[in-house]
Amino acid sequence: MSQELVKLGLVEAVNLVRTGQVGLAEIVEDYIGQIERQDKKIKAYLTYNFGPALNKAREIDSRSEKGKLAGAVMAIKDNIVTRGLRTTCGSKILENFIPPYNATVIERLEAEDAIVIGKTNLDEFAMGSSTENSAFFPTRNPWDLERVPGGSSGGSAAAVAAREASGALGSETGGSVRQPAALCGLVGLKPTYGLVSRYGLVAFASSLDQIGPLARNVADCAWLTSVISGFDRRDSTSADLPVPDYFSNLELPLTKNRIGVLAETLLTGVNPEVAANYKKIISNLEKLGFKLSTVSFPSWEYALPCYYIIAPSEASSNLARFDGVRYGFRANSGELSEMYVKTRTLGFGSEVKRRILIGTFALSSGYYEAYYARAARARQTITHEFQTAFKQVDFILTPTTPEPAFRLGEKQDPLSMYLQDYFTVTANLTGLPALSLPSGLTAAGLPLGVQLIGPDFSESELFKFAFLLEKSFNFKNNIDAITTVREEEE
Amino acid sequence: MLTFLLLLIMISMKFDLNHLSQLANLKLTGDEEKELPGQLEKIIDWVGQLSRLETDQEEKFTPVNFSLRLEADQPEESLPPAEVLAMAPDKEGDFIKVSRVLAGK
């Protein structure tokens, strides 16, 4: 067990396995060793899949023909269903749920010989920005174990950052791939709404949800995105459009160079190191020859309240299915309607209840017009502002998060947690693709991320731009130094 | 005028937790009973600031900006019943068993 194989990037490992230079079983064994050594401290995973993973790896090794992801060891967020492998959504109400089918993204990964090594921790039903809302336990940030990895895809981010997987899938509703990616020094993408099938993603807010990859670098992220993307007839909101080869396009020249940045007023209240990092990047981009201009977003401040009406409203509808009848936890009762109430009262955590109640309120008679309908119109206003912006710029650049990784237990007030989504919710409301890229470290050594937003289905250009920036940032991922120090302390 | 009336409604409203709990089929327990009502009022207040945004855009419920493929409604193979029933908390034969349903309440 060399421990060196876990340091290989995803595309690197795939090339070595497909050309027969390294055995996949060896790689999987290395990852299992890494997880066994570290995960009791980090707690990225809810369920391990070691036995089936090794069997699959050996089967793949025995073949001469190998898929495009043979060599990839994937961590999967636990709100994406995996047939025969427990899927909890981070909730007691699904604690023992074993899905009878695979999500489309899982089928696509496995068709290309990716290994699913385990299911990762998340805020319950993807509601949160720190993974502290998991009904089971919090996950810790590998960069500083006293801090959160972000959320809701915190387990997926921690797993990749700690070398417990070579890549991961997470899901987004308001920033839940990009924010943990930023807090853990990773690349994370929210694809254009409709690019990646939602079939098998346990629904939180159906008009906002998208599955997205988390990876160590842009090339790995691009490779994963091509495999999981594309039309799926089982998702009625799936885009019937061809999927480009994002990876091969990376080195092609970037034809677009107009970048929109946010006005100073939208950065008030943001952590000073985040603001300074953002300004430094802007001046570097000018030196690189990009044309920067400030873009006006008069409604940016309203995106968060708009999101926190729409998302809970849709959640209140989507989570009605958890009633103890067909699957999951059931609280026994003499009478059916009491069974529903007891099941949901005991099965759901506090944040889930908060959001269901807010959503129920916003949709209820007498309040629907003032809340939900108003938010739906606000959503359009915000969308139009982005469409206007993209007439004068090709990309929009923002910080990903208002602050770096905060301490566990620091944000007790729900509103202070909701504010973490300040820069990310606009991409979900508008459906636009957005990528977070590591852009530096704070003085205390915590990762910072910068966000790139593009027009609909512009992932090819986004990846190219991110690839270029990645080279110029030269982000030093010193996570290996951190984990080595931790081991010495044992 | 309409905006003004809506504002009035919002100011005078109270978050009726009992009513909403009934609609949502869930209750608060333990510490939640103490902490959540205040938190919920604060959140509703906070999202209510959306009323300050002038919107004369249409209501659009999804960000779908492409045409969706339509298909004929053809029956296909469903999930295997045995696997689906395996997750039922209680069953009898091919049926899922639940608590007694009372007529009226």
Question: What can be said about the biggest beta sheet of chain B?
Answer: 2 strands, antiparallel
- The N- and C-terminal alpha carbons of chain B lie at a distance of 42 Å
User: Biggest sheet of chain A, open or closed, and with what strands and sense?
Assistant: 11 strands, mixed
Mean of pLDDT of chain B: 84
**Which structural class should the secondary elements of chain A be placed in?**
alpha/beta
Oligomer: heterodimer
The SSE order of chain B reads HHHHEE
Number of strands of chain A: 11
Q: Strand share of the residues of chain B?
A: under 5%
Major β-sheet strand ordering of chain A: 1-3-2-4-6-5-10-11-9-7-8
- The chain-level mean pLDDT of chain A equals 95
Could you tell me how far the N terminus lies from the C terminus of chain A, measured between alpha carbons in angstroms? 20 Å
How much of the sequence lies in strands of chain A comes to 5-15%
Give me the count of strands of chain B. 2
DSSP helix count of chain B?
Answer: 4
The DSSP helix count of chain A reads 16
Q: What is the strand and helix layout of this fold?
A:
The complex is a heterodimer of chains A (490) and B (105).
Chain A: H1 10-18, H2 24-42, E1 45-48, H3 50-61, E2 73-77, H4 104-111, E3 115-120, H5 154-161, E4 167-172, H6 178-183, E5 187-190, E6 210-215, H7 218-228, E7 258-262, H8 272-287, E8 291-295, H9 303-318, H10 336-347, H11 350-363, H12 369-392, E9 395-399, H13 414-418, H14 425-430, E10 434-441, E11 447-453, H15 459-473, H16 479-489
Parallel strand pairs in A: 2-3, 2-4, 7-8, 7-9
Antiparallel strand pairs in A: 1-3, 4-6, 5-6, 5-10, 9-11, 10-11
Helix pairs in contact in A: 2-3, 9-11, 9-12
Chain B: H1 2-12, H2 17-24, H3 31-47, H4 81-85, E1 91-92, E2 95-96
Antiparallel strand pairs in B: 1-2
